Amino acid sequence: MTVGGWMPGRVVEAIPATHSARILRLDVPGWPGNDAGQHVDIRLTAEDGYQAVRSYSLGSYGASETVELAVDEIPDGEVSPYLVEDVLPGDELEVKGPLGGYFVWRPGGEAPVQLIAGGSGIVPMMAMVRAATDAGAAASVRLLYSVRTTEDAIYRDELSSLSGDGGVGLTWRYTRAAPDGWQGAIGRVDAELLRTAVWSPDRQPVVYVCGPTGFVEHVADVLVGLGHASARIRTERFGGA
């Protein structure tokens, strides 16, 4: 039953994703489906009636009534510690959505697609990678994923399986420590990396950038400096470091 746009969602899976993140799958009866890149609001209500609402991107897309979130814990947060540490299959959460119509990808466009994610900003990009793969358009998509270490990469194994010949073009950037045998640079995303790993401006890609505010602003500014049209750069950001 929907009340004020809120729908009950029952947790059906709670899967560790990293040392600080969890993938949650919820069964939401009556869910209308969503485009890749959209998000939801999650509302928790305490026994004393206090309510907290937070927005989370969806890693899932399409018409299924099962939706997927990947939540990275903010240690002093009101909602994420509960979702990462305490929620169990069978628990119910209130869900409102799908929300957002700007930061979305739909099959059918001719331009190449560039995805750039920092940390848990990978979640909406995962939905786009899945959608592009299912639509047979994976070869037109490139993903640059910046994480502290390989252990901090949400969806690491699935992304690796969907990249390669005929798949999404995947580039990793490690900012703190790289895996054994790594031959690339270590550090923040910079102009050199964006020049070499991203579709060139002359290809006129549609670029999606998601991550912490500082990361998103830095990447967008560098992209414009490299010749990418600002009108073709779509951003989604969240607070925290």
Task: Briefly say what this structure is.
By secondary structure, this protein is α/β, with parallel strands linked by helices. It is 20% helix and 33% strand. It has helices at 80-86, 122-134, 156-162, 191-197, 213-225, and strands at residues 6-16, 21-27, 39-45, 51-57, 66-72, 92-99, 113-118, 141-147, 169-174, 206-212, 233-238.
Descriptors for this entry?
241 residues, alpha/beta, Elongation Factor Tu (Ef-tu), domain 3, Rossmann fold, five-stranded parallel beta sheet, 5 helices, globular, Ferredoxin reductase
Give a topology summary:
Layout lengths: L5 E11 L4 E7 L11 E7 L5 E7 L8 E7 L7 H7 L5 E8 L13 E6 L3 H13 L6 E7 L8 H7 L6 E6 L16 H7 L8 E7 H13 L7 E6 L3
Parallel strand pairs: 7-8, 7-10, 8-9, 10-11
Antiparallel strand pairs: 1-2, 1-6, 2-5, 3-4, 3-6
Cofactor: FAD
Organism: Microbacterium ureisolvens
InterPro entries: Cbr1-like_FAD-bd_dom, FAD-bd_FR_type, FNR_nucleotide-bd, MRET, OxRdtase_FAD/NAD-bd, Riboflavin_synthase-like_b-brl
Describe this structure in words.
The protein has 241 residues and is of the alpha/beta class. It folds into two domains: 6-99, Translation factors (Elongation Factor Tu (Ef-tu), domain 3, Beta Barrel); 113-238, Nucleotide-binding domain of ferredoxin-NADP reductase (FNR) module (Rossmann fold, 3-Layer(aba) Sandwich), CATH 3.40.50. It contains five helices and eleven strands; from the N terminus they run E-E-E-E-E-H-E-E-H-E-H-E-H-E-H-E. The chain has helices spanning 80-86, 122-134, 156-162, 191-197, 213-225; strands spanning 6-16, 21-27, 39-45, 51-57, 66-72, 92-99, 113-118, 141-147, 169-174, 206-212, 233-238. The strands form two sheets. It has a six-stranded antiparallel sheet. Strands 9-8-7-10-11 form a five-stranded parallel sheet, with helices on both faces. Strand 10, helix 5 (213-225) and strand 11 (233-238) form a beta-alpha-beta unit. The protein is globular and about 55 Å long. The N and C termini lie far apart (37 Å).
